[in-house]
Specification:
By secondary structure, the protein is α+β, with helices and mostly antiparallel strands. It contains 8 helices and 20 strands. The protein binds flavin-adenine dinucleotide (FAD).
């Protein structure tokens, strides 16, 4: 496919990576973001398999009992013989700065305050309507607007809603505490407690049943999270004592899942990232799948003779891999809530590792 114009909607991880990858293949790319700046929205930290310079490469995972007893360690697995560490903790705001700079450097036009409110597509192209009434046209429209994608609702109304997994995540920034490893506690009254090291800081989280939800407008999330963690040993007392209480540094979010059946395109519109697939974060692979979507999309568009064959090649390379990771993430999420579920967790982790070791 040659010389087409592409609009990517959404300045999240998936949209920014896709925009850069497409621009590097020579396509004219415009990215639309509804916010007034392309920044992360309070996710605190993330685990990836790259970004070593701006992150903390992790070699070992520690597992503790709620009392604090060390139950065991395992290496952070390097999938498919990769030379990258199996896990790198990075601040989401730093990752966003890197991705925005990378998209800009590749020649992507970034438009902020640009919210897509409607889109139309026929065999020849697509038209986007923005909230302020502007209309933009392109040859190909990529929806990367996250799990609540408006384009998904418009294209596939039967899949408009994401499904609650029954769990929720508490996330807290612990400033000034530097860790080099990842640790988890399973069991006790809560689901999973863990931390991810960031450069100079730590990101502490609880993944738990959604039934312990704070009131909708609660402004005291930090003391609520600290209270839930009171009975725990190991790394918990140190991190809770130094947890930030600043607004925005502690967040609570119910987890939802979405798996759009194939194909993820209609007319000249294709969905990628969480807009098409999102599992619970039990494998730390959601963003990784969105990143792969963008890279593969750029490759198939550059290598195919027409858009239909590019879409076909894209779905052949993406659907089964992503589906397997979403399914394994869900299986782990449910097994972790079950006190006897550790064997199921290991089985699902092994299934995911086997998929991830295959080239994408
Ligand atoms: C608690 C938690 C922990 C996680 N941990 C990990 C991890 O360790 N590793 C990992 O790989 N993944 C992890 N994930 C998953 C990962 O965060 C997501 O898969 C990823 O951020 C999704 O990126 P995205 O670009 O598809 O969507 P989003 O990040 O949702 O970005 C969508 C963007 O589109 C914009 N937008 C939305 N609607 C419009 C519109 N109409 N017009 C214009 N712009 C619009 C939004 O403002 C936003 O900027 C985790 C997820 C959660 C919830």
């Amino acid at each position: 496919v040659k010389a087409i114009s592409i609009i990517v909607v959404g300045g999240g991880i998936a949209g920014l990576v896709a925009a850069r990858a497409l621009a590097l293949k020579g396509f004219a790319v415009t990215l639309l973001e509804r916010k007034s700046a392309i920044v992360d929205e309070g996710g605190i930290g993330i685990g990836l398999q790259s970004c070593v310079d701006a992150g903390v490469p992790v070699e070992t995972l520690f597992v503790y009992a709620p009392s604090g007893e060390l139950l065991g360690t395992r290496p952070a697995e390097r999938h498919g013989g990769s030379h990258w560490p199996g896990f790198t903790g990075i601040s989401r705001s730093r990752l966003h700065l890197i991705l925005v700079a990378a998209a800009t450097e590749a020649g992507v036009t970034l438009l902020t305050d640009a919210e897509l409110v409607a889109a139309r597509s026929d065999g020849a192209g697509a038209e986007v309507v923005l909230g302020d009434g502007r209309r933009l046209t392109c040859d190909l429209l990529i929806g990367a607007e996250g799990i609540y994608s408006r384009l998904r609702g418009q294209l596939f109304p039967e899949h408009i809603r994401a499904r609650p997994t029954g769990e929720a995540v508490w996330r807290a920034l612990v400033p000034g505490v530097q860790k080099q490893e990842v640790s988890f506690i399973f069991g006790g009254g809560l689901g999973t407690i863990g931390y991810t090291p960031l450069q100079g800081d730590t990101y502490l989280y609880i993944v738990d049943k959604a039934e312990h939800a704070p009131p909708r407008d609660a402004t005291d999330l930090a003391p609520r999270m600290a209270k839930l963690l009171e009975p725990y040993g190991a790394f918990v007392p140190e991190l809770v004592a130094r947890m930030s209480h600043a607004p925005g540094d502690v967040t609570y979010r119910k987890l939802e899942t979405m798996m759009l059946p194939a194909p993820w395109h209609k007319g000249r519109i294709l969905l990628i990232g969480d807009a098409a697939h999102a599992g619970p974060p039990t494998l730390a692979q959601g963003a990784a799948m969105g990143i792969e979507d963008g890279v593969v999309l750029a490759q198939v568009l550059a290598e195919s003779d027409d858009l239909e064959s590019a879409f076909g090649a894209f779905m052949r390379r993406r659907y089964h891999r992503v589906r397997a990771i979403v399914d394994a993430s869900l299986a782990i999420a449910h097994a972790q809530m079950d006190p006897g579920g550790q064997a199921l967790v290991r089985d699902a982790q092994a299934a995911a590792a086997s998929v991830l070791s295959e080239p994408f």
